[in-house]
Amino acid sequence: MPVPIQPDAMRLLAALAKGSRALMRGRFWGDGVDALLGEIGQASGASRVWIFQLLELQDEAVIQDYVFEWAAKPSYRQLTQRRFRFFASVFDDPTYRRMVAERQRGMSQRFITERMAPGPLRENLESQQILSMVTVPIMVDGRWWGTLGIDDCERPLDWEGAGLDALVIAAELIASSLYRHQLASRRRQFELFQQVAECGIWEIDLHSGSTWCSRALLRTLGYPDDYARLPLRRLLAHMLRADRQRLWKRMRQCLSDSGAGQSFRLDVRLQRPETPARWHEIVAELACDTSGRPSVVSGLVIDISRRKQGEERAMLAAEYDELTDVMNRRGLTRHLQTTLKRTSTTLCHLLMLDIDHFKQINDRYGHPAGDALLKLVATRLDNELRGQDVLARMGGEEFAVFVSGLDDAQAWQLGERLRASIADTPFLLPPLAGMAAAPPVTITISIGIARLMPGQDLEHAQSLASTQADQALYAAKRTGRNRVMPYPQAAPASPQATQPAASRPSDRGSD
Ligand SMILES: Nc1nc2c(ncn2[C@@H]2O[C@H](COP(=O)(O)OP(=O)(O)OP(=O)(O)O)[C@@H](O)[C@H]2O)c(=O)[nH]1
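Above: inputs. Below: predicted complex with guanosine-5'-triphosphate.
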């Protein structure tokens, strides 16, 4: 048996330099590893350089796969042998169990076969004509990922000293390259996730005020992917002022409740130059340093503009009458609430309008014709109103008009104008499928008017006004229809109410 020789450390160092360049530049991680193993193999004159990847560590066995190999000659090749495909090494030998435990702790192992104690491990090496072997675990993120090994079948190589140091560096180069590769693929997955989820990721260091934004977020805000640094002030300037104030408030709350894991969600509008603001949801979570002080706040920015549009459409649909396209009762209630909150002194009026004898229209011309008439009535009433007045369909053939800034006499005049606009010009119903064209139809409406006094209790003011307007409307119906009747408090000095002759729907000429 020849005396063990040591590998040339300087040649190994040069091999590491070349191999590490290949690892850094290689398009595919595996190509770089192949190149590094080749450099090490040639520099050391070994027969075989290999990497086993750990697949599973069981109680009684370790499962590995033979994933990389460089061989000095084709006869030394083992990678393609079936016995090295997902091979299980059973811990029936205490030496082997110890070896695995040491590899888990990141320790290297060197063997000169001839000097080994008899046992399964020595037999295993002898069966492969291996004269010496060295193994260095590849630790990724502190965990045993796999093993770099070198077999020599021609000379016993003693790896103690600088040679082993070079191999440890090689294993670390492989680990860091694998780590970089994993990070790069995570980043790609992350980018994809952000693209699909229409979100971006951000982080703010509370001590320094420095920010980090993912590429997706930078893009959303109109910056290039590789934008160097986005100061906090500039980042926040993308948020509408009112939303920024709400954000600060939430942030202060979160910090005063301080504790890691405090989180909040907030809908804000973000804008980039020259484009309209879009709704985003901010999801934020606070993290503390080891002394428990808030140190970092980070989270997501999710584009919710489509959801907001949907919500707005749903709200509109919920507040508008499908048949006539004017507001419905719910819409009017919300409009009254927002308007009355703003104006505490302006006098407002609520007019309740009801088509007289509408049932007869349905009976005579059919329900679809009644629908068409309701639409025409809504359009005609709307044409008589100012931009700030609101027309709503309260249900059936009943409408309401809300006006502000008129005195009682002007409100009455408006009611009279509305009444006359309906009564004075007959309606021409559109031809309906399968029906004979209806002749022009003359109808009338009755109107009740009440004052709406803005005050502290909006709900009460509203319901009182609608009750009073309803009562006035009922009085208008009772006293002959086709008239405007103010509730006593809303009655102008004169005249009190219109008193034209009551009329029934009739067929008359139209305009
Ligand atoms: N075509 C149509 N008819 C409706 C609609 N909603 C309610 N109506 C009808 O409107 C009619 C209202 O009848 P009534 O409450 O008796 O009132 P009216 O016939 O107008 O009589 P007065 O109000 O007392 O003058 C009923 O026949 C309802 O079926 C609708 O959306 N479309």
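The chain has a mean pLDDT of 90.
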